[in-house]
């Protein structure tokens, strides 16, 4: 089923919307959550929470890119769950990726929606101007939470090439954000 047809089902409030979403995107959503959570049951719970999130937000939202919209919901659900579970168990790879980005991002007061929106716009501008392969490596690491080893296999690069691209991209991001008043 095409995405436009799935969206139409959401707008019609048809129970088949979730069923069709699960058929088409369930594996992707579960895999994304599993990379963050490292637990199949928690990933399945986040997948189901994603369907609920989509049901609650479509309408009024009418996403232009349904898989990206669903991935954002799933990732946010998984990160919330991760924070909840963090005291009990750790996903070391995720912790490392957060630590890598920490030096680039300024502390923004939670609830300062205007400032958060400015940062999101700046990040989108930055990513939009990156060379395609650097953007891909960056997103695989920091959005999809893949390990460096997984990225080397996905992108057919050496570990050194991946680490070098990530380092240079983080350095450029830090400079870019500093120039826009977000740097540390």
Walk me through this protein's architecture:
- The chain is mainly α and 184 residues long.
- Helices cover 74% and strands 0% of the residues.
- The chain is built from 9 helices and no strands.
Mean pLDDT: 84
In terms of structural class, how would the helical and strand content be classed? mainly alpha
In terms of DSSP E residues, the strand content is under 5%
Unreliable segments of 5+ consecutive residues: none
Let me know the largest β-sheet: none
Radius of gyration over alpha carbons?
Answer: 18 Å
Measured distance between first and last alpha carbons: 46 Å
Order of helices and strands: HHHHHHHHH
Q: Helix tally?
A: 9
What sort of overall outline do the alpha carbons produce when their principal axes are compared?
A: globular
Query: How many beta strands in the DSSP annotation?
Result: 0
- Helix fraction by DSSP (H/I, runs of at least 4): over 70%
